[in-house]
# Entry
Amino acid sequence: METVVTGKGTEVKFGPDLPTVIIAERINPTGRKSLAEELKQGKFDIVREDAIKQTEAGAHIIDINVGAAGVDEVEILPRAVKMVMEVTNQPLCLDSANPKALKSALEVYPYKALINSVNGEERSLEEILPMVKESGSAVICLTMDEGGIPDNVEKRFEIAEKIIKRAESIG
# Structure
């Protein structure tokens, strides 16, 4: 099985027997006060700089996360996506726990995105998987649920199977 995500004139494939794909995750305000402050103000200088540097460093996919206290993700994530598309042709990974922010970002991204992420929580399955189907995006699946991250591999496989079955039922 092979998964493909796209950017402007760019295609990245990943799966078994394919080379490792590098997903750049620098555009994330967690632990970066300067980026969080800039995003609160609706500014994107650091986002732009990070996207350029990560592309130049060889990243295959650029992850964009704008989740921070005081940041309106529904407004800011699509603006960040537009900014990053101005400086790189690499496919984008839209990274948010807010389904409305993901939807607004997908509306401005005309290519096949990677969504980060869906998990085994019922709310996540109900809100994210239909969006994945509708947009034709790929999705990262996290093996956690309402109980958190399981301590054992059996429970993680159980959650993975739950996500896969739900995705298959949606189509």
About this structure: The helical segments are 33-40, 45-56, 73-87, 99-108, 122-135, 153-170.
